[in-house]
Amino acid sequence: MAAVQDTVEQVRSIDVDQYKYGFETNIESEKAPKGLSEEVIRFISTKKEEPEWMLQWRLDAYARWLTMQEPEWARVSYPQIDFQDLYYYSQPKKFKAPKSLDEVDPEILKTYEKLGIPLREQVILAGVEIPEGERPKIAVDAVFDSVSVATTFKEELKAAGVIFMPISEALREHPDLVKQYLGSVVPATDNYYATLNQAVFSDGSFVYIPPGVRCPMELSTYFRINEKNTGQFERTLIIADKGSYVSYLEGCTAPMRDENQLHAAVVELVALDDAEIKYSTVQNWYPGDAEGKGGIYNFVTKRGDCRGRNSKISWTQVETGSAITWKYPSCVLRGEGSSGEFYSIAISNGRQQVDSGTKMIHLGKNTTSRIISKGISAGKSNNTYRGLVSAHRKAAGARNFTNCDSLLIGDLCGAHTVPYIEAKNPTAQFEHEATTSKISEDMLFYCMQRGLSQEDAVALVVNGFVRDVLQQLPMEFAVEAQKLISISLEGSVG
Amino acid sequence: MAPLLEIKDLHAEIAGGRKIINGMNLTINPGEVHAIMGPNGAGKSTLSYVLSGKPGYEITGGEVIFRGVNLLDLSPDERAAHGLFLCFQYPLEIPGVSNMAFLHTAVNSQRKKRGEVELTSPELVRKVRELGKTLGIDADMLKRPVNVGFSGGEKKRNETLQMMLLEPYFCVLDEADSGLDIDALKVVSNGVNALRSPERSMLVITHYQRLLDYIVPDVVHVFNAGRIVHTGGKELALELEATGYAQYQSEAA
Asked: Does B85 fall in a domain?
């Protein structure tokens, strides 16, 4: 068919080099010596003025990491990473933890402004027109390379009893809380990248919501990798105490560079009795160019522990960036009656490789989980959903519903679904639904006959496909995500 | 008066080389309703696809002048914006996209291409509800995803709604009666008839005379082997019902 041939041609000539966040900020930085060693870890720990136990915690992880092997089970391939050829710590020069926004280097503020991130209070998320006075309040912690450069709305949050600050600051101001929870969800033994993160992590956000408090605004962290040859290893820890609620957003971008950059983050969530955490990610790291040159390796460990009775953790992710994505935001459903949710849109185009999914580990009685995953592959990309649903022998009455849909655009891409299901309790009920479909030329023609351009037709069909998940995102983020989906798929067909 | 549509010596083949349209000529004046009848496999549906620009067909000769431009130079969405509407025999389903949102996108895509002011949501909703009422389309059907889970009758009513809303100059109805019971056929026909006007023309493609009892044509063509082999008035449809296509098939061969 000539028409299919046309599409193939178009996919071949696909232009993914339209990454609009690809600029670089010219700012002098101070780095740790290149490579990874005990000295570098001590250097980071000293820079952060950390207590002795923290340094020891890092060194233990490093010793363990040296004995570990890189995981190879994911459906991704990349050249061997030379861990000695990376910088593990980079901070803007003359960096002193700013006391207020006015002390932040204007170059950095400009960078975030360009990215459309509302660092300044009262600045709205790009693209959402909301009349003065009705603007949504979002508190932002911005991480630039290895350090947190600014946190907004601190005072207002403090009044509500909410702690939201860089984790390095939390170590000084709330050492007991950090010590109690850090590493309690993702231990040093967990996996290669998480262990590496524990050894070298530089900064990240810390959130504590006291009992019974409903966090008065959305909390957000914005990650930006600027420096060359630098790995970003941030660590986020969120604790929702009994009966509290928090909604947290995470966004990421990086400059366009020819070489690959490593991002190995760890996110730990703890929900105590009746608490609820909603964690949303819009990940748009630089995906590399059309030939697969450059781009971020996104090797991330995210896990939530529903530690208390009737607690709830919900992950929502829109993944459009990165050369390689390897992440499985998971829930450990420990508390009786607790529930976990995973809503995901993963889009791959060009030469991107995505291996992503979730794990729902049912340990407690009457725990429930729900997984809705929408994978979209275009160009020459590969997109794999990998998920585990398991019920421990004591998890009587555990229930899961899984729905994995894949959509293919063109015929040079791949979609794969790899579900693992383990039920050790006879009363567990697991449901799994999966579909794979191709965006049909007939469907596009139907839309075009009604007046839509081909690109609008693709965007419409794709937005219809991901609708169930988009609805889970906070409003401001949903608008952003919808735009991002259209941009990521630009030029994917005729 | 200048014709609305002129097909001149059109030749087209399906990708792969099979000739489907074979030297076709047809002139349609503003306000006229033409019917094209012919046996299965005569190339009737292909004609509708070639006119609307569906990928997969190659034009090997001729031209189609529609309101002053050669239609064959335009992309399908440009043809739509220029006033061509194809009522699909089998309308496509679009999961997750509400009918109302689809209508809104379609109307404004066309208006934008023509350099016209786009409709606001309230304007559109009011208009769609009014038109919907005449077709028995309720609020629920407008909320549901486009054609997903619609019955055959609902799909055709939905096509008619789109046609009424988009107000095209030229409507091609491809087997508009397939899948319709007699009541639905009346509803759809009434919708189509309401659209008849001195400026608007239609091409009704069908192989049964039944539809033409409801949408009465000015001219009837017999189509076979990729071209028009006989032309007459509306009474021709009745003759065909009695005699069949056999005589015209031998004529063509």
From this structure: yes
How far apart CA A275 and CA A337 sit, in angstroms, is 12
Number of domains in chain A: 1
Question: Among partner residues B15, B55, B81, which is closest to A451 by beta-carbon distance?
Answer: B81
> Does residue B186 belong to any structural domain of this protein?
yes
- The full DSSP string for A247-291 is EEEEEEE----SSEEEE--EEEEEE-TT-EEEEEEEE------TT
What are the distances in angstroms from CA A88 to CA A11, A57, A203? 37, 17, 11
Count of alpha carbons within 13 Å of A60, Cβ hemisphere only? 10
Residue A74 Ramachandran class (φ > 0 left, ψ -120 to 50 alpha, else beta): beta
Has residue A129 got a pLDDT over 70?
no
Pick the residue from chain A with its C-alpha nearest to B146.
A464
- Predicted confidence band at A152 (pLDDT cuts at 50, 70, 90)? low
pLDDT (0 to 100) of residue A22? 61
Report, as ranges of residue numbers, the positions in chain B whose pLDDT lies below 50.
252-253
In a domain, residue B99? The reply is no
Pseudo-torsion of CA B74, B80, B85, B88, nearest 10°?
80
A494 lies in a domain? no
Specify if A493 maps to a domain.
Answer: no
Answer whether residue B191 is part of any domain.
yes
- The B-side interface with A (CB below 8 A) comprises 15-16, 52-56, 58, 75-77, 79-81, 85-86, 88, 91-97, 102, 105-107, 109-110, 113, 145, 162, 166
The CATH number for B182's domain is 3.40.50.300
Once rounded to an integer, what is the mean pLDDT over residues A463-477?
80
The mean predicted confidence, pLDDT, of chain A is: 81
The percent of residues above 70 in pLDDT, for chain B, comes to 98
Lowest mean pLDDT among A146-150, A420-424, B237-241: A146-150
Show the domain range for A263. 2-488
Per-residue pLDDT at A437 exceeds 50: yes
Q: Using a CB-CB distance cutoff of 8 angstroms, which residues of chain B are in contact with residue A449?
A: 52-54, 76-77, 79-80, 85-86, 88
- Is A329 within the bounds of a domain? yes
Helix or strand run (H / E) with residue A110: helix A106-115
- pLDDT exceeds cutoff 70 at A244: yes
Domain count, chain B: 1
| Interatomic CA distance for residues A78 and A293, integer angstroms | 11
Q: Using CB atoms, pick whichever of A451, A456, A461 lies closest to residue B80.
A: A451
As a whole number, mean pLDDT of residues A379-398 equals 93
Q: Which domain holds residue B78?
A: 5-92+168-252
Residue A74 lies in a domain: yes
- Say how far residue A43 (Cα) sits from the centre of its chain: 27
